[in-house]
Design brief:
alpha/beta; 12-stranded mixed sheet; 5-stranded mixed sheet; about 25% helix; disordered N terminus
């Protein structure tokens, strides 16, 4: 439902700053969005289905499916940017040690126990130290990429995953954060722990954010923000399987608490952990002679966890935790392109960045590469003189790279270090991830949880914070200091509100807190950034259909439109306006 500018200001609770912003922007800042420059919703959706059907349902970092998707993105960006005078680059990270599970089971004697999913990167290990990154020699040039040396059996070693562990089960209680479990009590045995989604979600409570407003299909501020417990809370405080390895535990069973069986199925979490060898893998490497390979660890549903605690733990029942996986050194690439603006190559040129990542366990996480080249196509169809700023479109690898790329679970820091010339001229960034999501939630009826669609669009998180404030207010639950709520960059906030008006979407706009996703690295170095990042319950769930049945084609299309509108406004704004809160 389209609404007028007057109604927008009233409904959003915006002050005169919204109108003031429009007055100080250049006269053509409110140029209308040109719908004909974007493909239709059906055309975009056909691309989503094509990727899911032919390069899926998963595209884990460095897998054949992921490599095919990266090549597809490169081809699309090349076809779009080259005719407009742009350039496309592929930066290859050589010898990435990819971990891939092939089978997993749990049994107690002759009894098969259902498994919800496996704990990523828990078995085996890699001891190599990463080679230094080398910056690109010039503005429009690729960086060198980074790599680990191939394993030579002396300084760099792949520790083959051990598939199975058998022993009696010890119930070690509730995991509430690193150090909360005495793993030594299960040395030489199988450990069982409960992992509460609600407890871990509360370690980063909604109060660390300032809620700037909500939007729901044409109406502003008609609902409250919605922060249900989610399985991805485990990436904030992941179970410390490395400490279990160090203590001599043979294997680990983790019981989800507080989510339904359907929700628990296939969860690829926590995906940010390194190899759970002892010491844990890192970019600094470790001494092969003093590194112990990680141990098999499996997730079970709450129902199965109850069965294990009541009928198996503490009894003389041999339990086998089986997780067959391989570690193979492969190559994986980040693809990015430049679309020249009116001042490209001149000292006064400025850059806008639109970025995402390319790897993930389903078509939700990540489909924004498809959004990315559609956004690029819109701007490439404009005359160069109508792009005051040059643009970068980037799909990074390594979001699921278990600590071998960038830092903090995001690959963007690598690209930033490799391209100081671009970063020095960058005045704004828009990060896009996970488009088109419908809302699925756990609904309790009586004593039973049911995982089902609510009939609504997902309330997506949009993060717009002031980088200057965020630098001084950073914290993490693991450090014992929580992030603080804080202000939003006023220009970016107004740009997003104006762009979302009338869209088929549902969002909450946040500031302060933690700037999650691939935009966090740009935000952290002071680039004014909008993070458009829906986070559904099924974000990291492996499913036979790649979770495409939980997406909506019109919603996907409208989120691409909102992205384009934000970037149009960012093109028209001056650098001083974009950094107005700093």
């Amino acid at each position: 439902m389209a609404i007028s500018r007057r109604k927008f200001v009233a409904r959003s609770g915006a002050s005169l700053s919204a109108l003031a912003l429009l007055r100080v922007l250049p006269a053509n800042a409110a140029d209308p969005f040109q719908e004909g420059l974007l493909p239709s919703a059906d055309e975009m959706w056909s691309e989503v289905k094509f990727v899911n059907d032919t390069m899926g349902p998963t595209r884990f970092t460095g897998s054949p499916q992921h490599s095919a998707f990266v090549q597809y993105l490169k081809d699309q960006l090349t076809n779009i940017l080259h005719p407009a005078g742009g350039s496309v680059f592929e930066e290859t990270f050589a010898n990435y040690p990819r971990w891939a599970a092939t089978s997993w089971t749990l049994s107690a004697g002759s009894r098969e126990i259902p498994v919800a999913s496996y704990f990523p990167y828990c078995t085996g290990g890699f001891t190599g130290a990463r080679s230094p990154l080398v910056p690109a020699p010039s503005l429009a040039a690729a960086g060198s990429g980074g790599n680990y040396p191939l394993a030579d059996g002396i300084n760099v070693v792949v520790i083959p995953p051990k598939a199975s562990a058998t022993g009696s089960v010890v119930n070690l209680g509730n995991f509430t954060g690193p150090g909360s479990i005495n793993w030594a009590q299960a040395a030489g045995k199988i450990a069982y722990i409960d992992v509460s989604v609600e407890v871990l979600s509360n370690t980063l409570p909604p109060s660390v954010y300032t809620v700037q407003g909500t939007y729901d299909e044409g109406a502003f501020n008609t609902e409250t923000s919605f922060f249900p417990p989610v399985a991805i809370a485990t990436i904030v405080l992941p179970p410390d399987i490395t400490n279990a390895t160090k203590a001599g535990v043979l294997g680990v069973i983790l019981g989800w608490q507080g989510i339904s069986n359907g929700n628990a199925e296939g969860q690829y979490n926590p995906f940010t952990v390194p190899y759970s060898s002892s010491p844990a893998s890192s970019q600094a490497g470790s001494n092969p002679s003093q590194t112990t390979g990680g141990i098999p660890a499996l997730w079970v549903t709450e129902d199965v966890g109850t069965l294990i605690k009541s009928e198996i733990a503490g009894k003389a029942v041999p339990v086998t935790v089986h997780l067959d996986a391989e570690i193979r050194q492969v190559s994986t690439s980040t693809v990015w392109g430049i679309l020249p603006g009116a001042n490209f190559g001149k000292p006064n040129d400025e850059f806008l960045i639109c970025n995402t990542h390319s790897d993930g366990p389903n078509i939700v996480e990540e489909n924004a590469g498809i959004s990315l080249f559609n956004v690029a196509q819109y701007f490439a169809r404009l005359p160069q003189r109508e792009r005051p700023k040059s643009m970068v479109f980037m799909a990074a690898t390594g979001h699921f790279g278990h600590g071998f790329f960038g830092s903090g679970g995001t690959a963007a820091p690598d690209w930033i270090r490799q391209h100081p010339q671009i970063i020095n001229q960058t005045v704004g960034c828009m990060t896009i991830e996970h488009f088109g999501c419908n809302e699925w939630e756990d609904i309790k009826r009586g004593s039973t949880w049911f995982y089902e669609a609510t009939g609504k669009l997902l309330q997506s998180e949009v993060i717009v914070t002031d980088p200057a404030f965020q630098k001084g207010a950073a914290g993490t639950p693991s450090s014992g200091e929580l992030p603080k709520p804080g202000p939003a960059d006023p220009t970016l906030h107004e740009i997003f509100n104006a762009s979302i008006a009338g869209a088929f979407d549902r969002v909450v706009v946040l500031s302060g807190g933690v700037f999650s996703g691939e935009g966090g690295a740009f935000h952290a170095i002071g680039v004014p950034t909008i993070g458009y990042i829906p986070n559904p319950q099924y974000l990291c769930a492996i499913a036979p259909d790649g979770e495409i049945s939980k997406l909506d084609s019109k919603h996907f299309h409208d989120q691409v439109v909102v992205t384009v509108k934000c970037l149009i406004a960012m093109q028209k704004a001056t650098a001083d306006q974009l950094k107005s809160a700093r």
